[in-house]
Design goal:
This protein is of the alpha/beta class. It is built from 23 helices and 20 strands. Helix content is 39%, strand content 11%.
């Protein structure tokens, strides 16, 4: 069998050739290939095929598409069923994407070793595998689109590296014509523009080289509102003065052959409706960048698989740096809010297609597929911060996006997806799937029509920050601290000269919680007032509900408290970031704690939901030396745990990991009845969702020595004092540092981009958070930015380095220990990477 995805999809086998074109079949194949030889949960596949609002018969429809794909593969055994999962078995040499990866690695090895001619030949072999856009431009789900975008990014990098080798071989005259075509296909890749300029200059065409620079500058300014980077500007200056360093190296071998075309088939568009693939950074092992390389071309440091720990910090005072939404009760209503239950108990809405190209906010592959969103009218007034008491009460024009509709469907159904229990016959399922295809296509076409921005706009000159944080609902206690911290940051920014020479404008809006949708109207009101940066929401579900509306308008969104792992792959057009660490990092920390305490065996008792899935999966990965003797998952609303506790008692684990919400107190009582307590030598580990004061629920001493984890830096006394100066009623400053940093990062990104447009801010957020000169205040950092220096802002919440998904690469967590009163105190601060 042979599967070709570097162009229109082809499946070759002994029985012939299949060329899938049905959108759902293509999406299913891409999702399975993205995790080939690994079981992919049914839930992920459903999300891949129905990203907006799955039908009730989605699980049954999925079986129909699996059957169709098995027939196309020519071998039904290739798709292996698992418990609520499917795995596609692919062997070496059966996937052209794997062949491309192998050849690209070999070419880079040759290049790094200085073997230029063999490197050029191997790059050619790798690029000749391409027949068009990855997966033929099919509309894919989150995992599949991520895989397709990665392939496209590697293709772009291979082209750049191949040109670099050709230039080193003295083929500058031969590559000029091809480079013009490649630059037209990849107009936002500065490295290609620089290579074209150098090839023209070395060919004795200095004037055309300078014209190429002006053409590059015009494209970047028109499409992104940005000037060329420093490397391209330095190259222009070197060409103007005829710098001898631009001449070919003296030991360059004479060209004996003409290089083949760089692109056999120029990409038409990236997969699906995703923004075009971004200018990639070279992976580890790539050859060193040439003098033309921009900072984005340098090989990035890969994230280690295990967390990195910082020196523990201790605090003797009790801490309530917690976060949870009030959990819905069994009937679906919200439980009474309590400052001890801060973790959001909520499904993350399915939302639109989850594929991700974070850098696509600033560096897409093709102009035709670059959806530049939402230009705002100029002339916004300058003045002191403006407060909106209840933005949700003011209706702004516009219709809710798909995420809003999906969010309401989720609330009605009580889960992150529409119910999947209904069973449908094959013919009915196929018919429903066809209707869903048509609806999806119409919806996407409608969004494409609405997406559009007047070229050349860089904003209205005033950075407007809107806070979308809860002052009502079950999360009200988080809203006070995060809102006050955001206002404190705006004051500090304005005290240091504002942004682009003008004061930052602040608008405050109430997001409420997921049980009552006032956030959608609040967002429309913020956007109607030209908001460039939205700080919020606090709730994972609320962020998902409003993400489509915000990103369609072209505004950037930074949440100070969202932690759901699903948001990493949310389809946000590259405009969603968060300063709080993901639950994946918390899972790593819990696993490390269990391992560090020298437990030989462990058991898991956890709620059966996506939040617990994330924690348990990453905890188990982080404790490879610990044997898991039992894993028990229970359903929502379960309150009787006697049988589960008896099962755990028979396994006699050294450690017990408890992942749940308010029902955890019932789990603890059952464990106590069966003698599985810390007093009996069984170590307990809790997480942010159930880290709570159990002093009124349990007899003294039951929880003593149990440990728990909670995301968030330890606020300093000075920060607490300053927040209370803004709002004297604030007691708990949970996520205040993260909210403060969100504002400062947005302001610094606007300064670096020299514009307040949302896309421009998003394009620079990663730049100001990593890789440059370290600074810790807005005043210090903005002075460096204005002096033309690259910066690395590390703020009150710790080290902040945004990755390609808009997540922070590392996070600060408190490690808490329970005392004899069944209350807990912060014992240490750990940094997990």
């Amino acid at each position: 069998m042979r599967i070709n995805v570097l162009g229109p999809i082809e499946i070759r086998h002994d029985g012939g050739v299949s060329r899938p074109t049905a959108p759902k079949v293509c999406a299913l194949l891409a999702a399975l290939l993205s995790r080939r030889n690994t079981p992919v949960p049914v839930e992920r596949l459903v999300d891949a095929l129905w990203p907006a609002a799955p039908p009730r018969s989605a699980t049954d429809n999925l079986r129909v598409y699996v059957t169709l794909l098995r027939r196309m593969l020519g071998d039904p055994g290739r798709i292996v069923p698992h418990h609520r999962a499917y795995a596609l078995r692919v062997e070496a040499g059966e996937l052209d994407g794997d062949d491309f990866d192998r050849l690209l690695r070999a070419a880079r090895d040759e290049h790094a070793a200085g073997r230029l001619r063999p490197a050029a030949a191997t790059y050619r072999q790798a690029l000749e595998l391409w027949r068009g856009a990855a997966f033929g431009g099919s509309e894919l789900g989150a995992d599949g689109r991520d895989y397709a975008v990665r392939l496209e990014e590697d293709r772009g990098a291979a082209i750049e590296e191949r040109v670099e080798v050709d230039l080193a071989l003295g083929r500058h005259r031969a590559v000029v014509a091809d480079l013009r075509g490649v630059v037209a296909a990849y107009p936002l890749r500065e490295r290609l523009h620089g290579q074209l300029m150098l090839a023209l200059y070395r060919s004795g065409r200095q004037g055309e080289a300078l014209e190429a620079y002006q053409a590059a500058r015009a494209v970047l300014v028109e499409e992104l509102g940005l000037d060329p980077g420093p490397e391209l500007r330095r190259l222009e200056a070197a060409i103007l003065r005829g710098d001898p360093s631009l001449s070919p190296p003296r030991d360059t071998p004479p060209p004996r052959d003409t290089p083949p075309p760089l692109l056999r088939n120029a990409p038409v568009s990236p997969p699906g409706d995703a923004p075009p693939a971004a200018e990639p950074s070279l992976p580890r092992g790539a050859p060193p960048p040439s003098p033309l390389s921009s900072p984005g071309d340098a090989p990035p440091a890969l994230e280690p698989s295990l967390p990195r720990d910082a020196s523990p910090a201790s605090s003797s005072a009790p801490s309530r740096e917690l976060r949870r939404d009030a959990a819905p009760g069994p009937s679906g209503g919200a439980a009474a809010p309590s400052p001890l239950h801060l973790r959001p108990r909520e499904p993350v809405a399915g939302g639109p297609s989850r594929a991700r190209s974070r850098a696509a906010a600033w560096a897409g592959v093709l102009l035709a597929a670059t959806a530049l969103l939402g230009v705002r009218a100029s002339g916004a007034g300058q003045g002191p911060p403006v407060r909106v008491a209840d933005a949700g009460s003011r209706q702004a024009p516009g219709q809710p996006g798909r995420a809003d509709q999906a969010g309401r469907a989720d609330q009605a159904d009580g889960s992150g997806r529409a119910g999947q229990g209904d069973r449908a016959g094959g013919a009915d399922a196929s018919g429903q799937a066809d209707q869903a295809d048509q609806a999806d296509q119409a919806d996407q076409a409608d969004q494409a029509d609405r997406a559009g921005m007047a070229s050349g706009a860089v904003g209205d000159g005033v950075l407007t920050v809107g806070t979308l944080l809860p002052t009502t609902g079950s999360l009200y206690f988080l809203g006070a601290a995060t809102s006050a911290a955001a206002e404190l940051a705006v004051r500090d920014v304005n005290a240091a000269g504002g942004v682009l020479g003008r004061p930052v404008r602040l608008i405050r809006a109430d997001s409420g919680d997921a049980t009552r949708d006032i956030a959608t109207a609040a967002v429309r009101n913020l956007l109607a007032q030209d908001t460039d940066l939205i700080v919020g929401a606090a709730s994972n579900t609320v962020s998902t509900m409003v993400m489509d509306t915000v990103s369609e308008a072209g505004s950037v969104m930074i949440s100070p408290s969202n932690t759901a792992a699903q948001l990493t792959s949310a389809y946000d057009r590259g405009l969603y970031f968060r300063t709080a660490p993901s639950d994946t990092l918390q899972g790593q920390l819990v696993g490390r704690l269990i391992s560090e305490d020298r437990n030989r065996t462990a058991a898991v008792i956890a709620l059966d939901d996506s939040y617990a899935d994330t924690i348990v999966e990453h905890a188990e990965r982080a404790m490879p030396g610990v044997r898991i003797v039992r894993t028990i998952r229970y359903g929502d609303g379960e309150r009787e745990f006697g049988r589960a506790a008896a099962d755990l008692a028979r396994a006699a684990p050294d450690a017990v990991l408890l992942v749940g919400f308010e029902e955890t107190v019932h789990v603890i009582r059952a464990l106590r009845r069966h003698g599985l307590t810390p007093a009996a030598g069984r170590r307990w580990y809790l997480v942010d969702a159930n880290l709570s004061d159990y002093s009124e629920d349990l007899p003294d001493g039951v929880m003593a020595t149990a440990k728990g984890t909670l995301a968030g830096a330890l606020p300093t006394d000075e920060f607490r004092r300053r927040v209370r100066e803004v709002d004297p009623v604030v007691e708990d400053v949970s996520y205040g540092p993260e909210s403060y940093d969100a504002v400062v990062l947005g302001a610094l990104a606007a300064e670096a981009a020299r514009g307040d447009l949302g896309q421009s801010i998003a394009a620079r957020l990663a730049d100001v958070s990593r890789g440059g000169r370290r600074c810790t205040t807005y005043q210090e950092c903005v002075a460096l930015v204005r002096a033309g220096e690259d910066i690395d802002y590390d703020g009150l919440s710790g080290r902040i380095e945004f990755d390609s998904n808009g997540d922070v690469g590392e996070g600060s967590f408190g490690v808490y220990v329970y005392d004899s009163t069944n209350d807990f105190r912060r014992a240490a601060t750990r940094v997990v990477r």
